[in-house]
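Section 4.2 – Deliverable D4.2 (structural model, holo form)

The reporting period included a commitment to supply a predicted holo structure for the target in complex with uridine-5'-diphosphate. Inputs used:
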Amino acid sequence: MAGKQQLQHPPHIVLFPFMAQGHLIPFLSLAKLVHQRHPGRYTVTLVSTPLNIRNLRKSLPHDSPILLRDLPFSGVDYGLPFGSENTDSLDYHDIVKLFQASEALKPHLEHLLSDITQREGRPPQCIVGDMFTGWTAVVAKKFGVFHATFSTCGGFGTAVYFAMWLHLPHLHTDDEEFAVPGLPENIRLHRSQLARNIRDTDGNDAWAAFLQKQISLNLQGASGMLCNSVEEVETTGMKLLRKVTALPVWAIGPILPKDGKSSDSRTGKKAEMSLATFVEWLDRQSPASVLYVSFGSQNTIGAHQMLQLAAGLEASERPFIWVIRPPLRFDLNGDFRIEWLPEGFEDRMRESGKGLLVRNWAPQLEILAHVSTGAFLSHCGWNSVLESLSSGVPLIGWPMAGEQFYNSKMLEEELGVAVELERGPDADVTERMVGRVVKQVMRSEKGEDMRRRAARCSEMIRAAVCDGEKQKGASMAALDSFLEIASRAPARGDLKTSVQEL
Ligand code: UDP
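Output (structure tokens):
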């Protein structure tokens, strides 16, 4: 109609993380980053299941521009315990059921895209899916929408993970060590670096079927990859990822929550103590003297390992904060039993002020950022790795699952910022081993060298996310380049030309 202007909706970006804290948190942070860098230029919708959306909503202010949409989900239909919508308290066998159940969200995502298309007069500009939701690339194709896969893991970890699941090289040799097809010959893995699901697969089970399918769908259907890493920190890893995926890869990390909120309010999870209690306790310790011990949002260790770790920590005489959970094979949501720790351990630690034990959940970012924290005994989940390196804190690796084994290898061999304690949930960890490795990291020349290297990583990370008037860090430039390309290259075939043009 003459004189009446057509209202143009901003380009719409739909984010679809897999339902695990280590995926939901960085996807939400990515949404915040897009808005922060380009206020008002995009509509960003993060999609998940009702429980996850409820938790995420709690972590956002009421006036947040990020849209959250929940899709109907019934895990019970896939044999999941009632109410399970993420990996938080699932045991090993249920995680594969959650994977399978997540694919049932496909028609609901299609419905959402139809809604958006109808309301806004065009489909979203782009879908950012997850490495475990390759099927979202199929949905994107159906709607003619640009699709990118956001790997919440590092470049090295993602490259090895993809290559391992696609080729399963350990099934074709009896050797303890083997090369991985698609990766340089000098990168060799040991059988002890295999997570339980890939170690036990025969190539035809539910894990292999699901993961091979999702990885292939991503490689065939995505127009590019975003990686939660820093080009300068992970030079080798990023090269490998480009080689393995044959896709354009933008290193846009570290995508970390940095909104001034405590870790609790970001995730909807609560630590049993206030943040002030942690800070006061840390304030009483000397700089770089405290060991922080945590196995992420979903892992725990065995009962025997817990006793050995406790004894090793006590013998090391270093102050520590340890996030404790019921051991393997017990209900993770159940009460923590006193007999899981050495007799009198908790009282001794409290009375001597040497150890702070916290059940289930701790404000990790704040602990790592505190000047008293000197090392992190970690399962090497990628978010934990990024959070540690961002604070210049070296690591003691005890990888448990997924690509954590490859992260630990890269941190030790490539970056020299970690030393590995042991591998896997069945590891025969002893008090002596714990004592030795804690001493090595916290009281030796090698430990000092690791700390210097971790501090250098922290500087590189700061530079990568710098967003000054004159200078734009590499990760910020990569994100802008991705947004620019997504706006210009809706179809996969156009992408390579667009990348060359820019
Ligand atoms: N986390 C936390 N407190 C805890 C345990 C975990 O804040 O007690 C957060 C941690 O800061 C990180 C995420 O949960 O952002 C865990 O992600 P990661 O990739 O390290 O491991 P995952 O839980 O996926 O195995």
